[in-house]
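re: ur question from yesterday

yeah so i grabbed the chain u mentioned. its 181 aa long if i counted rite. heres the sequnce exactly as i have it in my notes:
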Amino acid sequence: MRRAFTLIELILIMALLTIAVSMTAPTLSRFFRGRTLEAEARRLLALTHIGQSRAVSEGVPVDLWVDPEEGSFGLEAEPSYEENDPKAIINSIDSSLQIQVVARTLAAATKTLTRLTGSSTVSVPKAQLIHPTLPTIRFLPDGSISDTSPHSLRLIGRDGDSLWLAQTRNRLNYEIRTTEK
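ran it thru and got these structure tokens back, copy pasting raw so excuse formatting
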């Protein structure tokens, strides 16, 4: 004789599954939100590597611009022969995240040459920024990062957790950090 599940047994199993899911749901949601924050930080870090490589290989400055108000960022080469960059990358950050730019304040780099008769200031060619009103990480053709580039970017999750994309100590690259310093 075959024995089957009764309706009461099925209801008990469903109740146990409901309790188990309700207990693990908050932990799982925090886990997935944390993964979103990490994934977005890794995506930004990858763009810094792409921008630096492009600047060196193409011999033109490449800008990684950030628009905190719109929640978007992109990578574009400085306009030279072509008005628009065919390899431009434009992304939006996840809607549950915010991005903040931390700028480093440095004095303008001007050099003064002195002679016996007087002094003159060496002029530096003006950078042709694609988005002049937005914070921009600028990669120069020699692979270095411009002095006017932000020191760090902060990604903030909905629950207040944050990750930093900050310049390395030698100021040649960016790296992901859990704290600003």
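noticed a couple things. Strands lie at 62-67, 72-77, 89-92, 98-102, 112-114, 119-121, 136-139, 152-156, 162-167, 174-177. also The chain has one domain: 31-177.
anyway ttyl
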